[in-house]
Structures are given as C-alpha cells and as structure tokens.
C-alpha cells in the first residue's frame, strides 16, 4: 500500500522527501540559448536551482534565473518533468520554456560564466544528461509537458561518490577556511498525486473516505523515490480497484505552510472495476461545479484546473481540510 494522506491538525500530511528543482530554457532574438557554468563542477547547464519551502516551481524558475544570470524572465509553459532516483533523496526537476523580459547578464558566486550559445554549438563541458535534456526540451511542441525517469548510470554513481566524498567536502572546507557562509542544503519536499477521471457525460469520479465524512479525488502520498506519475497510478488503483492511463498533468499545487507539492493528472480507466475497501467507503460521479458541500475545496479547484486551457496550472493552496466540511 502507498502512503495514505493522514490528518494531523486538520491538514493532509505526506512523508516522501524529494528534492525539487526548476530550470528555464530561454533564447534571445538570435535563437541562442542562455547557459550558466556551475561553480562547483564547472559544467554548463540551463539556469536553475532548488525550490525553497512554499515556493511554486514557476517562482523558483524566475528567482534562480535572476540570481544566476541577472536576467528577468517569465515562464511560458512547462516542458518536462525529469525524475532522477538519486539516493537517499531523489530529484524531480521542472523544465520551463521562458521569455526574456530584461536585465543585463551578470555572473555570480554560483555562476562564474553566463552567456548565450547557439543550440548546435553547445559547450563541450556539459554533462550528457543535461545535454540530452536540452535537446529534448528544444524539440518539444504543444502545451502538454512530458515526464520521464532518468536512470542513474554506473558512471553517474561513480561520479556521485567522487563528488560526495572528495570534491564537495573540500569545497566546504575551503569556504569555512575563508570565513564564508556554507551553501544551504536543498529543501526536502513532501509530495502527493491525484487523478481526475471523467465519464462519458463529463462527470468526475470522487471517493468518500472511510476515516471521515469527506469526498476527495483518487490519490495520495508518494512512496520514497517514487515520481508523481507513478504515485497517481498506484494510489488510484489501491483506492478504486481500477487501472488508469494518465493523459495530462493539469495542475501542480504548493502548500502555503510547508514544503509540499501535489500533482493532479487527468486519466482514463483502462481496467478493473470500482471496489470499496479500507480507504474508500463509496464512489460517486459529480459534474464539475456540482460537488457536495463536504468535498475538499482544494480538490474542487484541481477539477476546475483540469478543465482549463490545456497548460499545467501552478497554484498555492492551503493544505488544511476545513472543519466545516467534516462530519
């Protein structure tokens, strides 16, 4: 069984630490791509970095680009989600297509070199994983993002050992010796995933919980190292008895009082049958906007987002379940 969201002080809790990053592909009028050189391993990559607590991926993309390059950008659309199972904490990386708004190129302590490069003349000093991601993002078309897991190769495992045991400790020692503040550790994020399943008339499947008189969407918390698309499929099966095929990532929500991201996918049922059990007391199909009063309002917002423009919506939400909807 997956990690069922449980209620603590009237809120949904998940325990599945994942580190989140956001990067942005930005081009200038000549079609050249903005790249930065990392200060630690001296390789080139798109500007980006880790999400801070309560931050949306879109906000992190804007902040990191400004901090690392001096340039102001606006995220236009989500291109891809990459999961990298890097023990003990996996990484989930958001890649955006961005629009250049202004500013002037500036280097920083994190980025000793910043410049625009032609896509067919990328720097040689670039990790193969990052080079492949850039090519995939450049080739992406349409509004819907794609998602994938990058398996850790043998060379990456060896590199991780060298960096973690030799290079990074030496760099931290140098900073202490020079009286510099240590680099902050990346935030560990909790994570959950849900599905919006519609029938032929457009009504959405809802589950009545067994632990309280509340209706919510199928879904729940991620297991360790599990990407959200796998969580959505697994949790839906466990709670409904149905196998589903994911169609689109319609929303990503950041809780306002803790580092917690939830992902909502539209999905089709491809097998099984609705079956009540330990987590589902009953099922019902409600038209969007006609959900009962004791349905979780955050989930009603996610249903509305699923019927939107086709692009992934990013929204901050309160993670607490309102007292007035609980029986």
From TrEMBL:
Residues 315-327 have a biased composition (Basic and acidic residues). SUPFAM superfamilies: Nudix. Coiled coil: none annotated. InterPro entries: NUDIX_hydrolase-like_dom_sf (IPR015797), NUDIX_hydrolase_CS (IPR020084), NUDIX_hydrolase_dom (IPR000086). Keywords: Hydrolase. Its cofactor is Mg(2+). Residues 17-140, 188-309 form the Nudix hydrolase domain. One of its GO terms (molecular function) is hydrolase activity. The keyword Ribosomal protein does not apply. Residues 290-327 are annotated as: Disordered. This is Nudix hydrolase domain-containing protein.
């Amino acid at each position: 069984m997956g990690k069922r969201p449980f209620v603590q002080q009237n809120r949904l809790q998940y325990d599945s630490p994942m580190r989140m990053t956001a990067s942005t592909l930005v081009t200038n009028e000549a079609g050249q791509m903005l790249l930065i050189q990392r200060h630690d391993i001296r390789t080139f990559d798109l500007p980006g970095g880790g999400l801070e607590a309560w931050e949306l991926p879109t906000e992190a993309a804007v902040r990191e680009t400004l901090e690392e390059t001096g340039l102001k950008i606006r995220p236009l659309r989500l291109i891809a989600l990459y999961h990298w199972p890097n023990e003990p904490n996996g990484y989930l990386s958001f890649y955006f297509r961005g629009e250049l708004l202004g500013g002037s190129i500036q280097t920083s302590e994190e980025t000793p070199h910043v410049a625009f490069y032609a896509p067919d003349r990328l720097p040689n000093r670039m990790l193969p994983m990052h080079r492949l991601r850039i090519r995939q993002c450049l080739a992406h078309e349409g509004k819907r993002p794609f998602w994938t897991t990058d398996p850790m190769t043998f060379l990456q495992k060896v590199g991780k050992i060298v960096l973690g045991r030799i290079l990074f400790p030496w760099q931290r020692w140098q900073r202490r010796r020079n009286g510099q503040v240590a680099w902050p550790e990346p935030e560990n994020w909790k994570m959950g995933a849900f599905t919006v399943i519609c029938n032929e008339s457009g009504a959405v499947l809802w589950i009545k919980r067994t632990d309280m008189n509340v209706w919510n969407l199928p879904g729940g918390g991620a297991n360790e190292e599990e990407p959200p698309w796998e969580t959505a499929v697994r949790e839906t099966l466990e709670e409904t008895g149905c196998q589903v095929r994911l169609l689109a990532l319609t929303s990503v929500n950041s809780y306002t009082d803790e580092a917690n991201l939830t992902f909502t996918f539209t999905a089709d049922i491809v097998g099984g049958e609705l079956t009540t059990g330990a987590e589902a007391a009953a099922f019902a199909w409600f038209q969007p906007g006609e959900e009962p009063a004791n349905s979780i309002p955050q989930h009603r917002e996610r249903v509305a987002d699923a019927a939107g423009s086709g692009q992934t919506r990013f929204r901050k939400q309160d993670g607490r379940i309102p007292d007035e909807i609980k029986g």
